Amino acid sequence: MSKAQQLKAITKRIQSLPTLPQVVQKLTTMVESPDVTAKDIGKLLNSDQVLSAKVLKLVNSPFYGFPGRISSISHSIILLGFNVIKGVVLSASVFDLMEQSMVGLWEHSLGSAVISGTISRHLGLPEPEEISTGALLHDIGKVLVRVSLSDDYDKIKAVVQNKGCSFREAEIEILGVDHAEIGSWLAEEWGLPERLAIPITFHHEPETAPKFKDRVAAVHIADSIVRAFGVGSGGDPFVGAISPSAWELIGMDRVDLPLLMKKIYSDLEEVDNCQL
Amino acid sequence: MQKVPIDLVEPGMILAKPVTNDKGMPLCAEGTELSANLIERLKRMNVTALTLKGHPLDMGTKDKTSEEKIEDMKARFSKVPGDPIMDNLKDAIASAIASEGCEEEANEEETPHE
């Protein structure tokens, strides 16, 4: 069976997608319209108070670089742009799911978002907020494995335990596909823009990304660094190897690494603080 | 410096970082000595944790020494032995963790002890 067929077989078994609030569905259609204004979107988000409170909390968290300064939804839309807001709204809506489904996955995701943001700003990559949002969502496929394929999830956990391998290796053994591919499918179902979907799809194989290679590289590297610092858990305790071409592509080989790690270490302290 | 849940904060402890509310408004400056009254007020403003000077609380497992943290961190690199990029990264993170230990000591010297 080819990869594509395997993925199809798996996604067929996924009866119910994690349900998203109606607001998110509406938002998806709205951001595609060329006439939509920040005010329209602000109005929509404000109609769901729980969601808008979570969105505000997220945009004020340290990784977007405006800690504690954004006081309204429409302000955050203007500062961060529609794509970031969409990612943030999605993250806020799956937060409960993430918290409940896998211990440590939220911290892992948030930590990756902080680190990829710090790296992107340090190296001057374009649109660090979008890179952070991609990192926040990079393991969304794992949520789906946990929620919609829970029997397989238990088997995967057992393989990780018995073989001492990574969660991803165990996924491939049990499912034939990994969470990146499942996440990629979910991103499509949810209508995520490519700039967020591609980092989700290629964060384990950054060199094969068709575009946005620098974003993918930043997320890929952040994934390893957050594991190295031991923040949260992606399902196994191991730091994965970083692709040398991704490392060089964004210029990590030219930075003062100890200085950057010091910065990241102090940024990560704030992650503890950010529960939605 | 130590981050402590507000329920465990006691009067006399000193803030190492300013406290802000969730909109970023400053509530209390760095260096403020906390009183019972102030702690109560911060609780009512939904502040959940404070960053304090020194190391006022023993929180068990969370309070590993820098050396222990570095050991734990190195163990997580067990799948990538001898990889030059990963070795560089490991050393850089080790130095970041180690330097935090030093700063902490420097901070503690400044903190007046009662």
Question: Would you kindly provide a brief summary of this structure?
Answer:
The complex is a heterodimer of chains A (about 280) and B (about 110). The longest helix of chain A is centred in the N-terminal third of the chain and has 20 residues, at about 80-100.
List keywords for this structure.
heterodimer; A: 276 residues; 67% helix; B: 114 residues; alpha+beta; two-stranded antiparallel sheet; two-stranded antiparallel ribbon; 3 helices; 4 strands; 11% strand; disordered C terminus
Mind explaining what this structure looks like?
The complex is a heterodimer of chains A (276) and B (114). By secondary structure, chain A is an all-alpha fold. Chain A contains 16 helices and no strands. In chain A, helix 4 crosses helix 6 and helix 7 packs across helix 14. In chain A, 50% of the residues are buried. The model of chain A has no long low-confidence stretch (mean pLDDT 86). Chain B is 40% helix and 11% strand. Chain B contains three helices and four strands. The C terminus of chain B is likely disordered. In chain B, strands 1-4 form a two-stranded antiparallel sheet. A two-stranded antiparallel ribbon of chain B has the order 2-3. Chain B has 114 residues and is an alpha+beta fold. In chain B, helix 2 packs antiparallel against helix 3. At the A-B interface, helix 14 and helix 16 of A face helix 3 of B.
Q: Kindly estimate the percentage of residues of chain A that lie in beta strands according to DSSP.
A: under 5%
**Overall form of chain A:** globular
Q: Report the total helices of chain B.
A: 3
Q: How many distinct beta strands of chain A?
A: 0
Output the helix-strand order of chain B: EEEHEHH
State the end-to-end distance of chain B. Answer: 17 Å
- Kindly report the average pLDDT value of chain A: 86
- Roughly what is the average pLDDT of chain B, rounded to an integer? 80
| Major pleated sheet of chain A | none
Query: How much is the radius of gyration of chain B in Å?
Result: 18 Å
**If you compute it from the alpha carbons, what radius of gyration of chain A comes out, rounded to the nearest whole angstrom?**
18 Å
Oligomer: heterodimer
Number of helices of chain A: 16
SS content category of chain A:
mainly alpha
Helical fraction of chain A:
55-70%
**N-to-C CA distance of chain A:** 41 Å
